[in-house]
Amino acid sequence: MKLKLGSSDLLRVGAGAAVMLVLALLALNHQSQRSPARQIEFKARRLDLVERMRYSLAAASEAEKSAVLAMSEPDSQKFAEESRTASAEVERLGKSLDGLLNANAGRREKQLLASFFGCFTNLQRIDRDLQALAVKNTNVRAFALAFGPAAQAAQAADSALSHFLAKHATLPQKVLLLAASAQTAILRFETRLAPHIAEHSDPKMDEMEALMAKDDIQIRAGLDGLAAQTGLRADSDLATARASYARFSELRTQIIALSRENTNVRSLALSLNQKRKTMLLCQDALYVLQQEIAGEPAPVTPSNPRKLRAEPH
Predict the structure, then answer these.
(1) Which of 146, 177, 263, 306 has its CA 20 to 30 A from that of 237?
(2) Concatenated DSSP letters for 203-223?
(3) Is residue 36 a contact partner of residue 300, using CB atoms and an 8 Å limit?
(4) Would you kindly state where each structural domain of the chain is located, as residue ranges?
(5) 172 Cβ contact partners less than 8 Å away, ≥ 6 residues apart
(6) What is the per-residue pLDDT across 11-52, written as a single tens digit (0 to 9) for each?
(7) What architecture is domain 39-136+265-294?
(8) What is the per-residue pLDDT for 8?
(9) Contact present, 282 and 116 (Cβ < 8 Å)
């Protein structure tokens, strides 16, 4: 008995065959994607990206420390740029890894990468603040002034007063005491600058500046007292001492202003505390992600068959 198929029957048969063909193709594609070779390659690519992220993160950290410790503004800016470049590489690699995980990875890996990016965003914020401070180098510049022009001015005033005292040894004791008092205070004042530059506490800097103000009063009282003495107003050594101290006072104002900004001290403190802690958290997040990927079960291959359960003896 022959069966006659109508047009509607033929359409249903054709549609069913098409569906079966599509399902077969999808199955083959999925099997190809999940083949042992593909799984091994996928795992290797993810591990490589994570390892490169860890390396670039460490490179960014080292460059940042060099920027903080650099003794010149050009060097500090150069290292800061290196740190920014390495940090940008971490972000680029992270986006590549995120693309891989979105295509074919477990939820746990995506969560771990998201956790890293949360930490890394905080790290980038700290880096921006830190580098903005480091490249100003106000403490380094203050030290350069203190041990350069300011020290020269103080030494010139000290030498002039020493020569004055030797030349006028027969003057009344009270006049000689004015010169000696000014000379002692100048030398003491000079030694207060370096601790002020290195100090990070504003209240302690206030205390140091109060002592400097007392030194200044003593110096000016001595120099002005000498200038008020008959016959000493035109003395060349006294004129040199007064001019040198005036120069020292101008430089002292610049030094204290730079010291108050404290950019090197603040950037170093930020680097050793907040930055260091956040960096460790980011590295830990990458390590956990790396271990998660590395711990995936090895794919089953002809050379790695499933072991049959051993028969009890």
Answers:
(1) 146
(2) HHHHHHHHHHHHHHHHHHHHH
(3) yes
(4) 39-136+265-294, 138-262
(5) none
(6) 554 555 554 544 444 444 444 445 778 888 888 999 999 999
(7) Up-down Bundle (1.20)
(8) 56
(9) yes
